[in-house]
TrEMBL record:
<dbReference type="Pfam" id="PF20628">
    <property type="entry name" value="Dyp_perox_C"/>
</dbReference>
<keyword id="KW-0349">Heme</keyword>
<dbReference type="GO" id="GO:0004325">
    <property type="term" value="F:ferrochelatase activity"/>
</dbReference>
<keyword id="KW-0732">Signal</keyword>
<dbReference type="GO" id="GO:0030313">
    <property type="term" value="C:cell envelope"/>
</dbReference>
<comment type="similarity">
    <text>Belongs to the DyP-type peroxidase family.</text>
</comment>
<dbReference type="InterPro" id="IPR006314">
    <property type="entry name" value="Dyp_peroxidase"/>
</dbReference>
<dbReference type="GO" id="GO:0046872">
    <property type="term" value="F:metal ion binding"/>
</dbReference>
<dbReference type="GO" id="GO:0033212">
    <property type="term" value="P:iron import into cell"/>
</dbReference>
<dbReference type="InterPro" id="IPR006311">
    <property type="entry name" value="TAT_signal"/>
</dbReference>
<feature type="domain" description="Dyp-type peroxidase N-terminal">
    <location>
        <begin position="11"/>
        <end position="168"/>
    </location>
</feature>
<feature type="domain" description="Dyp-type peroxidase C-terminal">
    <location>
        <begin position="180"/>
        <end position="365"/>
    </location>
</feature>
<keyword id="KW-0575">Peroxidase</keyword>
<dbReference type="GO" id="GO:0005829">
    <property type="term" value="C:cytosol"/>
</dbReference>
<dbReference type="InterPro" id="IPR048328">
    <property type="entry name" value="Dyp_perox_C"/>
</dbReference>
<keyword id="KW-0408">Iron</keyword>
<dbReference type="InterPro" id="IPR006313">
    <property type="entry name" value="EfeB/EfeN"/>
</dbReference>
């Protein structure tokens, strides 16, 4: 199991090759004190340096009479490729009561707004939004859990867990060195994703540049994180023919190749038709609607995970895709596409969006820096 540097121009956990597991957490800040919010971000940064290096939080043991500084369940486990990625939500700038609790209102990026209500959304407020988020990814779920648990513990009295999501398997590749994994519908997911190796494309589609938003120069080198908890009707899917399943995605199930022919990484040909003139990649198929050629050239870096939270009271599996995407501008790269998919995507019939969040992830930190420093 590897170890990823915590420091750098960008936060880790974005173009880092997607790890096997995720534990995502969203927090409400419960204090009105700017100083305590800053102290929390500093404490979290210090702990993140330790955790991502595979060390105990707090540098070891305290007096025997005190609770241990680290909760202990990761003792003896390697770093397991742990990355911790921090973000701030729109409500940090204007709280639920509309007040500017921390004097940050003037620095809110214009694009950092609660995502709009999309057609067919069925959002649970207790699984949505939040003032702060932490995405923990690791190859060992115990290591990811341990990280979120200890950060939550450090936040006691300053921020409280609002919602969290455990993901058990990656549904994307973020490096061309990785095999494409499969989602719970059994299809390869991540084939056409933005990859770490596409450096020019990352600057164009992923990283916020200086000058993108004059109010939010602190976000340069950062990015936006879109989170959507998408419940998948797998029982219905499992009664659908393979022909229909492939038609819905526009790719074949075995290889992930476009239905216009070729192999997994070959370019889909949307003009190709069958003998009767029907497009081989149907007009309402997911890859056609999501393709950059249909979206003003926009791309996104997807980094989602399969999840299950047991079953519903109706005896169906409560399972799906915890969709995470990183974009330079959600207003251009996510919102229009989500509107299109919700209205036209053949896949939508099998989905229900039950949770949502938008966060701005500040740039990475140097040796003395702390996450979010530029904001204060
Ligand atoms: C592509 C599955 C939701 C955006 C794909 C592919 C699959 C897939 C199998 C083709 C392989 C690939 O290139 O990765 C799913 C499933 C979803 C879901 C099962 C829900 C449970 C979404 C959402 C969005 C999205 C909500 C964004 C609003 C994209 C994009 C592509 C893609 C941009 C690449 C299109 C291309 O460039 O060819 N998805 N997806 N997907 N999906 Fe999704």
């Amino acid at each position: 199991a590897g170890m990823y540097a915590f420091e750098g121009p960008h936060q880790a956990g974005i173009v880092t090759p997607a790890q096997d597991r995720m534990y995502f957490a969203s927090f409400d800040v419960t204090t009105r004190s700017r100083e305590r919010l800053v102290a929390l971000l500093q404490d979290w940064t210090r702990a993140a340096r330790e955790l991502t290096a595979g060390r105990e939080v707090g540098g070891g043991t305290l007096p025997y009479a005190d609770p241990p500084a680290d909760t202990g369940e990761a003792i003896g486990l390697p770093a397991s490729g742990l990355t911790l990625t921090f973000g701030v939500g729109p409500s940090l700038f204007t709280g639920a009561d509309g007040t500017d609790r921390f004097g940050l209102g003037g620095r809110r990026p214009a694009a950092l707004e609660t995502l709009p209500h999309f057609p067919k959304d069925h959002l649970d407020p207790s699984r949505s939004d939040g003032d702060l988020c932490v995405q923990a990814c690791a190859d060992d779920p115990q290591v990811a859990f341990h990280a979120i648990r200890n950060l939550t513990r450090l936040a006691f009295g300053t921020a409280a867990l609002r919602w969290s999501q455990l993901g058990f398997g990656r549904t994307s590749s973020t490096s061309s060195s990785q095999e494409t994994p499969r989602n719970l519908f059994g299809f390869k997911d991540g084939t056409a994703n933005l990859k770490a190796e596409e450096s020019g494309e990352l600057d164009r589609h992923l990283w916020v540049a200086a000058g993108d938003d004059p109010r939010a120069d602190w976000l340069a080198g950062g990015t936006y994180l879109v989170a959507r908890r998408i419940s998948m009707r797998i029982e219905t899917w499992d009664r659908t023919s393979l022909r229909e399943q492939e038609g819905i995605f526009g790719r074949d199930r075995a290889q992930g190749a476009p239905l216009s022919g070729g192999r997994e990484f070959d370019r889909p040909d949307f003009t190709a038709t069958s003998r009767d003139g029907a497009p081989l990649i149907a007009t309402g198929s997911h890859v056609r609607l999501a393709h950059p050629s249909q979206n003003d050239g926009h791309r996104m870096l997807r980094r989602g995970y399969n999840y299950t939270d047991g079953d519903t009271s109706l005896g169906r599996m409560d399972a799906g895709l915890f969709f995470v995407a990183f974009v330079r501008d959600p207003a251009r790269q996510y919102i229009p596409l989500q509107n299109t998919l919700a209205r036209q995507d053949a896949l939508t019939e099998y989905l229900q969006h039950t949770g949502s969040g938008l966060f701005a992830c500040p740039p990475g930190v140097g040796p003395d820096g702390w996450i979010g420093e530029g904001l204060f």
